[in-house]
Amino acid sequence: MRGKRILILEDNPSRHKAFRQKFIGNTVVIVSEPREAKLLLEDMGWDVLCLDHDLGGQEMMESGSGTGYEVAEWSEKHPARQPKTIIIHSLNPVGSANMNDALPDAHIIPRAWKAETSFDIAECGCLVNHCGICGARYCDHQDCQCRERNLR
Predict the structure, then answer these.
(1) What is the pTM of this model?
(2) Which of 39, 69, 82, 143 is most enclosed, with most CB atoms within 10 A?
(3) Is 137 helix (H, G, I), strand (E, B) or coil?
(4) What is the pLDDT of residue 83?
(5) Taking CA 75 as the corner, what is the angle to CA 73 and CA 81, rounded to the nearest 5 degrees?
């Protein structure tokens, strides 16, 4: 994946560095406040949005103002501003589930910043899937030929 515009909501500086390394060759903007993320989503077109839930150094926060849920809720109300791919990378399982309820097409990928957490984004902006039968790569709006044959 190269040449994508990626907006990341994350407050942990060590994860900032890890995300930048993971997304080399892309335009990466990292913010730590929901207000900043909403302003950027309002003004610019993004290909990917990565959301953390717990912000401000807090852990296992309830969903609400000051969390990634605030951005998820805003995005739900402004679907025209939603990037094609949304990744929820929070380690808070309840917060992740709440954000996914607001954004059901989002992908929950805990520890997405880690080098060993493997995922890719197709040219069209979809998350890439891998066929368990033949190993082919395909995106969310396509089916692997092998998979299609086996579904019939």
Answers:
(1) 0.82
(2) 69
(3) strand
(4) 92
(5) 170
